[in-house]
Design goal:
This protein has eleven helices and 21 strands. The protein is of the alpha/beta class. It is elongated. It starts with a helix and ends in a 14-residue tail after the last helix.
Length: 481
C-alpha cells in the first residue's frame, strides 16, 4: 500500500470516528463533536463527557395487522370517564381518558396535591384501583392530609417512592386504573446519569410512565413544578409528550384557585375550573362570581363592576380605586390584581383625554376576592372606578362597564359581549356601559338589562354621572372638579 493510500485511509477513519463519537451533557442530553467545559444548552459546567461510538442500526419492517379504515376505529377507547370533581372534569373535557397522561403544573402550596388526592379518592370510591405515588412527602404525611379532606378509600393505594423501577414495580403489582405521581421531578431512573429533576431524568421518567399508560390503558396524573417566571419546569418535550397540560393558578393569600388547560388533546383549551381551597380540602365552585363582589346594597365611590371571560366562562368582578392627594414628588401608583402597566396607561388617558386631575395624586387600584384581571375588557371599569373616586361620587349598584380603552381615549369593542351581559343580568345588574356598535349584529339583549353606548372616555364619565343620579353643580366632566 502506498503512502498516499495509507494517508487517505487514515483520514477516512478519523472522519468516521468524528461522525459516530462525540460528547454529551449528562444534565440535558445536548451533544457536541468536541469537548467543551460548559454545556451550550443548559449552561451547566463540567457536565459534558465523551460517549462511545454509536453502532450503525437499520430498522427492518415488522409484520403487522393492516390498518383499519378510519370509520371503523373504536371510539369507546377514547371516551372520558368523570372524576367526580365537576370543575376538574370541565377543564379536562369531560373526565380522564384511559391511557391518557395529564400534567398538572403550579406553584408550591397552590393546592395541586390536595386536588389530586381528592380526585384519587373519588375514583377509588367508584370502584377504580388507584395508586398514589408520593415522591415529596412521606406516606404518613399523605395519610394525614387524606384524613383531613376525607379522602380515605379501600382501593386507594399509597407508595412513597422516588425510584422509577420501584414505581413501575408497584404499577405491575397493583395494576391500577389511575396512577398519580407527585411529582415527576422527584422520581429518578438508575439507568440515567444525573440527579432527579434534571432534564435527562425528567424526560426518561415521563417517557417510561407514558409507555406504561398506553400499554395498560391506565390514566396517569403527573404533578409538575414551575420555574420562577411561572412556566413549567423541565424539558419542553415533556409538554409535547403528555396528552393534557393543566395549569393551577392562585394567590396563596386567597382561597380562590383557577385551573385552566394549556393543552388538551381530548377537549377545549378555553375552559376554566374554579375551586375554593380551605383547611378541610378543595371544593369546586360552579358559581364563583359572588366571591369577587362586595355588598351591593350601599353604593361607594371608587368602585365599578365588570364581567371578565376566563376561557368561555363569564365571571363578574369588582374593581376598586382610591385617589388621594400626594405629598411625594412622584405620586404612588399601586395595583393589586390588575396589570400595573395597563393601569398606568389608563391614568395617562384620563389625564390627557378627559382632563382628570390625577397626575399629582396617589392612586391605588385593586380587585375584590383575589381575582386577577388581565384582559382589556376591564379597562372601562378601571376608568369608571378612578373617575368615581376623583369626583367622590359612586355609581349606582346595578351598573357594569365593559370596554377596551385606547390611547386616543376611544372605547373599543370586546369579545363575548352577549355572554357577559347575560351573566350580569342573571346577578341583577340593570345597566351596562358598552362600546358603540356592540349590538349591530341584531342580537337580542338579555331580559332586564339596558345598554348605554359610550364612544370615548369623556362620554363614559358623563354616562357614569347620569347613572349615579343627580350631580352637583358644574360637574359636567371630571376636568371641572
Amino acid at each position: 500500500m502506498s503512502e498516499v493510500t495509507r494517508t487517505v485511509a487514515a483520514m477516512a477513519t478519523r472522519t468516521a470516528s468524528r461522525r459516530t463519537a462525540g460528547y454529551r451533557c449528562s444534565e440535558c442530553g445536548w451533544s457536541a463533536v468536541k469537548w467543551v467545559g460548559r454545556c451550550g444548552e443548559c449552561q451547566a459546567w463540567g457536565s459534558v463527557a465523551e460517549v462511545g461510538d454509536a453502532p450503525a442500526r437499520t430498522t427492518a419492517a415488522t409484520a403487522v395487522t393492516p390498518a383499519p379504515p378510519i370509520g371503523e376505529v373504536d371510539l369507546t377507547r377514547a371516551a372520558a370517564r368523570p372524576t367526580g370533581v365537576g370543575e376538574f372534569d370541565r377543564v379536562l373535557g369531560g373526565g380522564l381518558v384511559p391511557g391518557s397522561v395529564v400534567l398538572v403544573a403550579g406553584e408550591p402550596g397552590v393546592g395541586k396535591s390536595t386536588l389530586l388526592l381528592d380526585v384519587a379518592a373519588r375514583a377509588a370510591r367508584e370502584g377504580a384501583a388507584v395508586l398514589y405515588v408520593s415522591g415529596e412527602e412521606s406516606a404518613a404525611q399523605v395519610r394525614g392530609r387524606a384524613e383531613r379532606i376525607d379522602a380515605i378509600a379501600a382501593t386507594l393505594y399509597l407508595a412513597a417512592e422516588t425510584d422509577l423501577a420501584t414505581v413501575l414495580g408497584h404499577v405491575e403489582a397493583r395494576s391500577p386504573d389511575l396512577l398519580v405521581v407527585d411529582s415527576v421531578q422527584t422520581v429518578a431512573s438508575a439507568e440515567i446519569e444525573g440527579q432527579a429533576g434534571n432534564v435527562s431524568q425528567v424526560r426518561e421518567v415521563a417517557a417510561s410512565l407514558i409507555r406504561a399508560a398506553k400499554q395498560r390503558g391506565m390514566a396517569v396524573l403527573l404533578v409538575g413544578h414551575v420555574t420562577k417566571d411561572g412556566s413549567i419546569a423541565g424539558p419542553r418535550v415533556l409538554e409535547h409528550l403528555v396528552d393534557v397540560v393543566v395549569q393551577f393558578e392562585g394567590d396563596r393569600h386567597s382561597r380562590l384557585r383557577l385551573v385552566r388547560a394549556v393543552k388538551n388533546r381530548f377537549g377545549p383549551t378555553d375552559e376554566v375550573g374554579c375551586f375554593d381551597l380551605s383547611d378541610v380540602g378543595i371544593v369546586g365552585l360552579p358559581d364563583p362570581s359572588g366571591l369577587f363582589l362586595t355588598r351591593r346594597d350601599l353604593a361607594v365611590a371608587g368602585t365599578c363592576v365588570t364581567v371578565t371571560l376566563e376561557g368561555r366562562r363569564p365571571l363578574v368582578a369588582e374593581v376598586q380605586a382610591l385617589v388621594a392627594p400626594s405629598t411625594l414628588p412622584s405620586p404612588r401608583r399601586t395595583s393589586s390584581g390588575l396589570d400595573a402597566a395597563r393601569l398606568a396607561m389608563i391614568i395617562a388617558v384620563l389625564d390627557k383625554r378627559a382632563g382628570a386631575p390625577v397626575g399629582s395624586r396617589d392612586i391605588f387600584a385593586a380587585t375584590v376576592g383575589g381575582v386577577r384581571l388581565t384582559e382589556p375588557a376591564a379597562d372601562l371599569a378601571i376608568v369608571c372606578a378612578v373617575a368615581s373616586s376623583v369626583i367622590d361620587r359612586p355609581l349606582a349598584t346595578d351598573v357594569i362597564a365593559l370596554g377596551e380603552v385606547g390611547l386616543a381615549g376611544e372605547v373599543r369593542r370586546v369579545t363575548g359581549l352577549q355572554r357577559r351581559l347575560a351573566e350580569a343580568a342573571r346577578l341583577g345588574f340593570r345597566h351596562a356601559l358598552v362600546p358603540p356598535g356592540s349590538l349591530d349584529g341584531g342580537a337580542a339583549l338579555p331580559d332586564g338589562i339596558r345598554t348605554h353606548e359610550v364612544a370615548d372616555v369623556p362620554r363614559a364619565i358623563e354616562a357614569m354621572g347620569r347613572l349615579a343620579g343627580p350631580r352637583p353643580t358644574d360637574t359636567h366632566a371630571v376636568a371641572s372638579v
